[in-house]
Amino acid sequence: MVSIDVWNASVDFPIFDAKSRSLKKLALGKVGGKIGSEGRVPIIEALHDINISLGHGARVGLVGHNGAGKSTLLRLLAGIYEPTRGSSRIIGKVAPVFDLGVGMDPEISGYENIMIRGLFLGMTRKEMEKRVDDIAEFTELGDYLSMPLRTYSTGMRVRLALGVVTSINPEILLLDEGIGAVDAAFMAKARDRLKDLVGRSGLLVFANHSDESLLEFCDTAIWMDEGRVKMHGDLREVLTAYKGHDPFEYLSEETRERLAKSKVANGNGGE
Ligand SMILES: Nc1ncnc2c1ncn2[C@@H]1O[C@H](COP(=O)(O)OP(=O)(O)OP(=O)(O)O)[C@@H](O)[C@H]1O
């Protein structure tokens, strides 16, 4: 059984090369974590006193303004950042999908990149060998898969990366919003694979600005504000409080129907 627990955790970033003049300007800004002024080295308090307990089947959306702490929280939940104060415990193998391009080498072929990216996400070579044909078909890249990655367009790279990411078997899946930033036509094709991926994962945390994506994949949400958890609860309630309106008001009839169907197909919590 997978789980993530975080107790009274804070994450600070000391900034050793900050300029004091630009710091004054920053103090007037509206985004980002608080900048501490004690001592000689300025410290950005990216996360402050976080308490979170997530168990098997959790499907959590992560929302908040720019600089609110979503990416830092995902890295804390992944075990990439240690808390500066407080503690955390992660039980399960984490697949952090923060940047589709990470782990890709421009000088080797698409096929080789499929293997490397899969290993990077915690799969074994054998597991990837079994999946490579299916991934190749999904990407529709044909002979390009034998060419070096540097010859690919941005969209072609995204196809390859999405093909690999959606083929893994994650115990804990942490998704940053970049994954939603692919073109609409390919996203429609990738949606079913993404849904299956989420269904296979024991625990999901998904940072995203799109109501539609959050409603599709999550049932609860955490609202981050200035490095703190402002609200944690039912997805629709959190989105309503965060956005100031019920997210369902702005969905098309077609989207509502699709969401209703996918919730039934996925069951509740993906157990
Ligand atoms: N490596 C770092 N070094 C210094 N400060 C950082 C670092 N990473 C994040 N921060 C600071 O931590 C705060 C939270 O940033 P974070 O990237 O977690 O926000 P976010 O909610 O993901 O924002 P966005 O929606 O803009 O991506 C910000 O004030 C940011 O300046």
Description:
InterPro entries: AAA+_ATPase (IPR003593), ABC_transporter-like_ATP-bd (IPR003439), ABC_transpr_TagH-like (IPR015860), Bact_Polysacc_Export_ATP-bd (IPR050683), P-loop_NTPase (IPR027417). Pfam families: ABC_tran (PF00005). Residues 23-251 form the ABC transporter domain. The chain has a 6-stranded mixed sheet. The protein has a 4-stranded antiparallel sheet with strand order 2-3-1-5, with helices on one face. It starts with a strand and ends in a 5-residue tail after the last helix. It has one domain (1-93, 170-271): Rossmann fold, CATH 3.40.50.300. It is of the alpha/beta class and 271 residues long. The chain has helices at residues 20-27, 70-78, 110-120, 125-139, 154-165, 184-200, 211-217, 235-243, 253-266, and strands at 3-14, 34-36, 43-54, 59-63, 85-91, 94-97, 172-175, 203-207, 220-225, 228-234. It binds adenosine-5'-triphosphate. Adenosine-5'-triphosphate (ATP) binds at residues 13, 32-33, 44, 46, 64, 66-72.
Query: Main beta sheet: strand number and arrangement?
Result: 6 strands, mixed
Number of individual domains: 1
CATH architecture: 3-Layer(aba) Sandwich
- List the ions, cofactors and other small molecules found in this model: adenosine-5'-triphosphate
Helical/strand content category: alpha/beta
CATH class, please? Alpha Beta
On the 0-100 scale, what is the average pLDDT?
87
Give the helices and strands as they follow along the chain. Answer: EHEEEHEEHHHEHEHEEHH
According to CATH, the fold-level topology is: Rossmann fold
Shape: globular
Count of helix runs? 9
Percent range for β-strand residues: 15-25%
The count of β-strands is 10
Instruction: Name the poorly predicted regions.
Output: 267-271
The order of strands across the largest sheet is 6-7-8-4-9-10
CA distance, first residue to last residue: 11 Å
Helical content band: 25-40%
CATH superfamily: P-loop containing nucleotide triphosphate hydrolases
* CA-based gyration radius: 20 Å
